Amino acid sequence: MDAQRKPVQGEFLVYFEADDAAERQLFPSEDFVVERVPDLSSAYLARSKDAEAPEEVAVERLRQAAGETCRIFPVLEDNEGHRLLPTGHINLLFGKGLAEADLGAWLDHRGLALVSRSKLRPSALTVSPVSPADRLELVVRRLREDPEVEFAEQDVLMRFQRE
To answer: Which CATH number fits domain 86-158: 2.30.30.100, 3.30.70.80, 3.40.50.300, 3.20.20.30?
Structure first.
């Protein structure tokens, strides 16, 4: 994880497939305070009532409440205290570019799906892990170690709060 971004203890973003019946199972939850994220369809912010619970324990409780098909990501915070909401995607840039013919095999080998590709800079991609169980920060770390990849970072939205 980047030094500028760190997980917020006990806060998670939960995404459901658009037609996922498990979405309704998240309410009510004994272990979490849950609220819908207004501008993200099928996304919920879940705050653990046990703020001291380790991340793995909290994620397991969320997965039990929400079901195996949801995607769960820790909410991130930058050095200035701004909350960053992971989209579940990864932005990456190839160093030398990758031939179009090789892109599909490269993505398949890493368990990734193409979300979008920049028209202005074809070596810039947005990808997403195929498996809901893949931890985004670990996928980013593996991509950063890949010699083909110049840059890899979680795609995030900034959550503005009125004071």
So the answer is: 3.30.70.80
